[in-house]
């Protein structure tokens, strides 16, 4: 029997739902499951966009509004990329991928304003107390947020203060991350663990504050901080106004009330003269022919375009063949890949617990969790490197019981982005040395092939805002290229 609020949604094959004493079932209802269109393969397009995440969607809108003929090709059966809102259980909204936004994120806030959307707070992040796991997850301690959050902020300041001015000499303009390139290169080789080892003794922390600091650092890159680049932490730090409390508010406190899928659908609805082809994978991009690009699909069908915009996640870029081959540095980073990230799940409890927040350092299977709704009956949780089997409700409940000994879980839902063959990562986090070596190379177009992704943005890389930034930039570059070489169709 259908739940209320699901009538307008259809199931994507992405995601899973698991009830107690039942096996997980694949697929979740979402508004971003939309109708694919039939193509006439003899047509030629001004632009073929590979990937219908936010970078691809915003580029499609901008180019189509400039009278360009656009084809969107998406491997999934929905739009939105690493972001979609599942609707279940009397219309409850669960953000399976990207979730939180902030008014200081310029590109996404512009779209929120444009489409008349609103925001809502994840209540648990302002809980009065924090549950902290110590001693390798064996000791639970309850501490007050008001006293310890400020102390944690001071520890984070010391951790981030690589240049004695809170990293302002490294990241003075975070939306232009190479403004101080020499300093970026100086510190880009450091891992987050390297930096922690440098300042560990100077931090003079209690066990609780150290556990919270390590939990937050691991949470941000969703894994072992020895694998994450410290320079990416400094980018987030600068975007957060060099202040932990403001940074955290921007990262995980406010989300789109109507759902991220509503925003994705609104952008698609604004597109003009755009065709959408779903459940279709691109095998190769051939730019050897003058004045056109040949896209070969996995089905073997060929499509012609004047330009191509590739918006796939960095970790799956290597799965597309480019003829001729891409720049050697692009090939190199495509093979190496960025950090894969960890896990995210939503758990519905049998009864509400109010506002609640928890932290535990790596390698605890849950590094951060908090109640997301008004009464505290839904928990969103995060873990590193796939250490938690989020499809196993008993395992999820067992790990939550470390923080909440008597809590019972009714159902769990989520999606394994790390093993999704079309994604292979959660949000973007570079390994040591990768930002200064590869970011600008990844951003560089190789006309008539262009690139955009939340993984290669300058500012809020790995966020919806970063995807929009990258897509807008590439749309401008493509429009300039087409204006120079072709007339509008």
UniProtKB/TrEMBL annotation:
Cellular component GO terms held in the UniProt record: mitochondrial outer membrane
Domain Amine oxidase: 54-478
Broad enzyme group: oxidoreductase
Chain positions recorded as FAD binding sites: 74-75, 282
Binding site for substrate: 382
Alphabetical UniProt keywords: FAD, Flavoprotein, Oxidoreductase
Superkingdom of the organism of origin: Eukaryota
Enzyme Commission code(s) on record: 1.4.3.-
Compartments where located: Mitochondrion outer membrane
Catalysed reaction, written as an equation: a secondary aliphatic amine + O2 + H2O = a primary amine + an aldehyde + H2O2; N-acetylputrescine + O2 + H2O = 4-acetamidobutanal + H2O2 + NH4(+); benzylamine + O2 + H2O = benzaldehyde + H2O2 + NH4(+)
GO molecular function, one term: primary methylamine oxidase activity
Primary location recorded for the protein, binned into one broad class: mitochondrion
A Pfam family of this chain: Amino_oxidase
Swiss-Prot/TrEMBL cofactor(s): FAD
Topology of this chain in the membrane: Single-pass type IV membrane protein
InterPro entries: Amino_oxidase, FAD/NAD-bd_sf, Flavin_amine_oxidase, Flavin_MAO
Protein family per UniProt: Belongs to the flavin monoamine oxidase family.
Role description: Catalyzes the oxidative deamination of primary and some secondary amines such as neurotransmitters, and exogenous amines including the tertiary amine, neurotoxin 1-methyl-4-phenyl-1,2,3,6-tetrahydropyridine (MPTP), with concomitant reduction of oxygen to hydrogen peroxide and participates in the metabolism of neuroactive and vasoactive amines in the central nervous system and peripheral tissues. Preferentially degrades benzylamine and phenylethylamine.
Protein name: Amine oxidase
Species whose genome carries this gene: Adineta ricciae (Rotifer)
Upper lineage: Eukaryota, Metazoa, Spiralia, Gnathifera, Rotifera
């Amino acid at each position: 029997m259908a739940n209320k609020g699901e009538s307008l949604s259809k199931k994507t094959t992405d995601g899973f739902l698991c009830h107690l004493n039942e096996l997980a079932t694949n697929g979740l209802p979402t508004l971003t499951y939309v109708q694919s269109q039939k193509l006439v393969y003899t047509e030629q397009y001004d632009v073929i966009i590979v990937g219908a995440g936010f970078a691809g969607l915003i580029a499609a809108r901008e180019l189509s509004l400039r009278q360009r003929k656009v084809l969107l090709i998406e491997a999934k059966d929905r739009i939105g990329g690493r972001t979609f809102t599942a609707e279940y259980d009397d219309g409850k909204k669960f953000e399976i991928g990207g979730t939180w936004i902030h008014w200081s994120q310029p590109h996404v806030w512009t779209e929120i304003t444009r489409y008349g959307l609103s925001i809502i707070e994840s209540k648990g992040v302002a809980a009065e107390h924090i549950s902290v796991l110590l001693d390798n997850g064996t000791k639970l301690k309850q501490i007050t947020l008001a006293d310890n959050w400020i102390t944690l902020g001071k520890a984070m300041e010391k951790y981030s203060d690589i240049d004695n001015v809170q990293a302002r000499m490294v990241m003075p303009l975070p939306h232009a991350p190479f403004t101080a390139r020499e300093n970026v290169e100086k510190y880009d080789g450091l891992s987050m663990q390297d930096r922690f080892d440098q300042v560990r003794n100077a931090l003079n922390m209690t066990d609780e504050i150290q556990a919270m600091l390590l939990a937050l650092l691991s949470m941000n890159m969703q894994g072992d901080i020895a694998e994450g680049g410290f320079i990416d932490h400094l980018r987030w730090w600068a975007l957060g106004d060099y202040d932990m409390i403001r940074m955290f508010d921007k990262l995980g406190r406010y989300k789109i009330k109507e759902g991220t899928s509503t925003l994705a659908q609104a952008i698609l609805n604004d597109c003009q003269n755009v065709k959408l082809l779903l459940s279709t994978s691109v095998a190769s991009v051939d730019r050897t022919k003058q004045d056109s690009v040949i896209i070969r699909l996995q089905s073997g069908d060929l499509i012609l375009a004047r330009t191509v915009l590739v918006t796939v996640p960095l970790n799956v870029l290597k799965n597309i063949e480019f003829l001729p081959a891409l720049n050697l540095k692009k090939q190199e980073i495509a093979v190496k890949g960025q950090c894969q990230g960890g896990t995210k799940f939503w758990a519905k409890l049998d009864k509400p617990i109010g506002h609640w927040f928890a932290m535990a350092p790596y390698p605890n299977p849950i590094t951060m969790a908090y109640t997301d709704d008004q009464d505290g009956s839904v928990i969103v949780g995060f873990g590193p490197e796939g250490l938690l089997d989020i499809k196993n409700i008993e395992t999820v409940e067992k790990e939550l019981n470390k923080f909440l000994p008597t809590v019972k879980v009714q159902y769990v839902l989520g999606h394994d982005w790390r093993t999704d063959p079309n994604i292979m990562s959660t949000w973007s986090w570079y390994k040591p040395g990768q930002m200064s070596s590869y970011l600008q190379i990844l951003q560089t177009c190789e006309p008539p092939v262009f690139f955009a992704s939340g993984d290669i943005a300058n500012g809020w890389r790995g966020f919806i805002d970063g995807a929009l930034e990258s897509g807008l930039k590439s749309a401008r570059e493509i429009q300039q290229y087409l204006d120079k070489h072709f007339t509008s169709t």
